[in-house]
Amino acid sequence: MSDPASKIVLRRHALARRDLIEPSEAHAAAKIIAAQGMALVERFVTAGGVIAAYWPIRSEISTRPLLERLAREGYRAALPVMTAAAKPLHFRLWAPGDELAKGPLGLSEPLAEAATVEPDLIFLPLACFDAQGHRIGYGGGNFDATLAALKAQRKIVAIGLAYADQEVDAIPHEAHDQRLDFVITEQKIFDCGASG
Length: 196
Prior knowledge:
Blueprint: H1 4-19, H2 23-44, E1 50-52, H3 64-72, E2 76-81, E3 90-94, E4 100-102, E5 108-110, E6 116-117, E7 121-124, E8 128-129, E9 135-136, H4 142-153, E10 157-161, E11 182-184, E12 189-191
Parallel strand pairs: 1-2, 1-7, 7-10, 10-11
Antiparallel strand pairs: 2-3, 3-6, 4-5, 8-9, 11-12
Helix pairs in contact: 2-3
């Protein structure tokens, strides 16, 4: 069972720690995580498959090096489009150089004319995580709703991206909280066994 107050405290502390990461450290971590992310993509998805990632905001791990590598390696990248809080995200194709627009909630999204697709693998942002694959996001519930909807249709590999400092001992969780299959940090890959 989950204590909502403890989630709020964990989120606040984790985001405060993340905000202290120096730009040079963040840049180095994004490059390491892009390489590790590509290794997992190649393990689970054949070239031409659709890989969803997020467009970074605030102090999130940058996915830009990863998105560029995906394009070079022949994968199709997609970014999320938000419709409402706690509702599943939609994904539209995006490639490096494509224009982005501000969505209704202020996030950068592919243009409306970009094709809507279903991802084979998804990279998620997070505030903090534990080694069992539980995560705390920003509280909107969109990624949990998205993973639940995708898993109801087929197998989907969910990978959280984080700095090592975002790991906590244990995340309180409820039945609707979706576990990650992996978490990649600049120091290691956590195989959380969620899909096994």
